[in-house]
Amino acid sequence: MYQFLGDRWSCVRIAAPEPLVKAGNSVRLEHVEPHPLLEEWRRRLHLDYGKMDYVMHEGRPVLLDANKTVGAGGFASGPELEARRRHRAAGIESLFRPA
User: pTM for the whole thing?
Assistant: First the structure.
């Protein structure tokens, strides 16, 4: 899951015991670097704010979903989640800088 706002982002890999991975059935969350293709897709889709869900297959990302909003998610709130949200929120300033 790759979430972004302006020049700020967070990207996590989520694991679940079932094939359909959702926040509600997750058992592990790991911070990862997004694959460089995600930034290319983001530019092509003109997304300044949003979320991309993807999987890695044979070393390449496969885009499952792209959203203009990130939603509240099913994760229990906590200090780590709040820190990621605050980090991304600061990205709004980059949208007001001259190009």
Answer: 0.77
